[in-house]
User: Which sequence fits this backbone?
């Protein structure tokens, strides 16, 4: 299927379609258009040029007579719009799959995965994809049936698990410690936390940093959320109502921090501008005013290693579960400053 047909159905130019599908670093100005292009490409089973040329010339091996297809499972949220980190990671995965002459399959949520597992079997209407990429932590009760259906699994997350499948991770605990150490180096001692607190590595890194620096753990400065932009906005309103406010706020992800910025813009209070830091380094974090200080999670590298692990397992390169851990890094920007004495 040609790029021209995808462009016709998407209502855009062939050059735009080519950039979206074939250039790893390209970001379309319209996320909706980019998503539409990917959906049409999947629907038409578009094959990357390199793979198509190989098949046409007869140079592909028997094992690789067709491109491998991998489904994506968004384990936590019902939509990519609720977690911008995984939205960008999903884009990186699709481009990485194409660069490896593979096809991105369906983007699945928990209800859809449950339906697939119920229908799986010898009389299933649709053959399963060659593998499944899990975006986030998978519910433990699904691991065995998923491995029975998909055979080849790889997970991508900020936190490692003890599950028996390949993983590419970037430690949420290390990211949180990096963020907290930076705030403390600026003289902040009263630091609020906004994010998930239930067995969450970023929360563990938060309180471990307080303990290691002999700072008190003030539960009135801890705001449990599901880590969405709207919850960040709501929690910041609560902070503004406090008499004894924190001088700095550590958000578990950039989406939460964007909500904090939204609240501060609409509820300006003279003389109070806390330092704000978060984790992820999504594209929008560099577009805020002030620019958001964040901890970079290497999404492109995680996508690259996840696809390589899947291909290596399919081709018999390894059998035991492999965990690849990548480092995070601090991106100091304008949203953090020295604590006023």
Assistant:
């Amino acid at each position: 299927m040609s790029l021209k047909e995808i462009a016709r159905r998407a209502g855009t130019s062939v050059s735009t379609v080519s950039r979206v599908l074939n250039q790893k670093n390209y970001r379309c100005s319209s996320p909706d258009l980019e998503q539409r292009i990917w959906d049409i490409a999947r629907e038409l089973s578009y094959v990357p040029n390199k793979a198509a040329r190989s098949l046409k010339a007869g140079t592909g091996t028997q094992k690789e007579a067709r491109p491998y297809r991998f489904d994506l499972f968004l384990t936590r949220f019902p939509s990519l719009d609720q977690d911008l980190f995984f939205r960008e990671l999903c884009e990186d995965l699709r481009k990485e799959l194409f660069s490896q002459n593979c096809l991105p399959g369906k983007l699945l949520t928990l209800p859809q995965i449950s339906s697939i597992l119920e229908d799986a079997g010898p009389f299933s209407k649709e053959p399963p994809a060659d593998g499944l990429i899990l975006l986030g932590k998978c519910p433990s009760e699904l691991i065995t049936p998923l491995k029975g259906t998909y055979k080849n699994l790889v997970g991508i997350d900020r936190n490692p698990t003890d599950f028996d499948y390949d993983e590419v991770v970037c430690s949420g605990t290390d990211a949180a410690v990096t963020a907290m150490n930076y705030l403390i180096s600026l003289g902040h001692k009263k630091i609020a936390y906004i994010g998930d607190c239930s067995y969450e590595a970023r929360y563990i890194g938060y309180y471990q940093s307080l303990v290691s620096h002999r700072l008190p753990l003030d539960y009135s400065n801890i705001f449990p959320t599901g880590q969405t932009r709207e919850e960040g906005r709501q929690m910041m309103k609560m902070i503004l109502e406090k008499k004894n406010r924190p001088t700095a706020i550590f958000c578990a992800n950039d989406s939460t921090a964007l909500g904090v910025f939204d609240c501060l813009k609409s509820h300006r209070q003279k003389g109070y501008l806390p330092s704000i830091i978060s984790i992820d380094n999504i594209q929008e974090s560099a577009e805020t005013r002030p620019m958001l200080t964040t901890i970079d999670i290497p999404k492109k590298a995680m996508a690259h290693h996840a696809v390589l692990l899947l291909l290596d397992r399919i081709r018999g390169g390894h059998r035991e579960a492999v965990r690849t851990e990548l480092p995070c890094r601090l991106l100091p920007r304008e949203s953090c400053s020295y604590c006023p004495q």
